Amino acid sequence: MTRSVLPGIRPIGMTARLPVAGVALTLALALVGCTAPSGTVDATATATPTETHGALSAQQYAAAVELARQEIRNEDATVTNATATVGRGTVHDSNVGVPCTSGHVLHIKLIGKFPHIATTGGPGLRTGPVRAVLLTADAESGQACLIGVHVGSASPKQGAVALDLG
Fold first, then answer.
1. How many CB atoms lie within 10 A of CB 139?
2. Are strands 161-162 and 78-91 parallel, antiparallel or unpaired?
3. What is the C-alpha separation between 63 and 76, in angstroms, rounded?
4. Is the pLDDT of residue 94 over 50?
5. What distance in Å separates the CA atoms of residue 109 and residue 85, rounded to the nearest whole number?
């Protein structure tokens, strides 16, 4: 089965709820509350670095790994690179039915082959094989609020934390 993805259009079959991150993450992020304007994300702000996961807390890293694994399973994807960053912001205009409202979001980038996703193009939009899937998730709940795709060549974001999906 191949899905068609257009910006701003909620793809069919992508409304599944994703697992909730641990209670420790909820408590840690409950003390922080900074929002960007509705539907926008500030990807420049990051959390305090930790020894093992860069700017991601252990709970954020675990949530990013779980979301990446779930997307790979759902799409029968072959992923050559998986990374994550964390930033301040909120997303109210979700394309998967769940907003990100905690004030911090995870940005997960999966680079590889996604055989069940196709782009239909449109005015000003590129078509071709999907080379990357971009997930935005609430850093507190661990639920995805946006999913996007990238066609053409894709590379990891500089400074992003590599996810060990093994």
1. 30
2. antiparallel
3. 20
4. yes
5. 9
Q: Which tens digits make up the pLDDT trace of 25-53?
A: 222 222 223 333 333 333 333 444 444 68
Is 13 within a domain? no
Domain count for the chain, please give it.
1
Within a domain: 153: yes
In a domain, 14, yes or no: no
Q: What is the 3-state secondary structure (H, E, C) of the chain?
A: CCEEECCCCCCCCCCCCCCCCCHHHHHHHHCCCCCCCCCCEECCCCCCCECCCECCCHHHHHHHHHHHHHHHHHHCCEEEEEEEEEEEEEECCCCCCCCEEEEEEEEEEEEEECCCEEECCCCCCCCCEEEEEEEEEECCCCCEEEEEEEECCCCCCCCCEECCCC
- Determine how β-strand 100-113 pairs with β-strand 78-91: antiparallel
State the pTM of this model: 0.69
pLDDT band at 105 (very low <50, low <70, confident <90, very high): very high
66 within domain boundaries? yes
Range of the domain at 149: 3-7+19-162
Tokens 């697992």 sit on residue:
19
Q: Which two tokens stand for residue 53?
A: 């996961």
Q: Find out whether 25 and 32 touch, Cβ atoms under 8 Å.
A: no
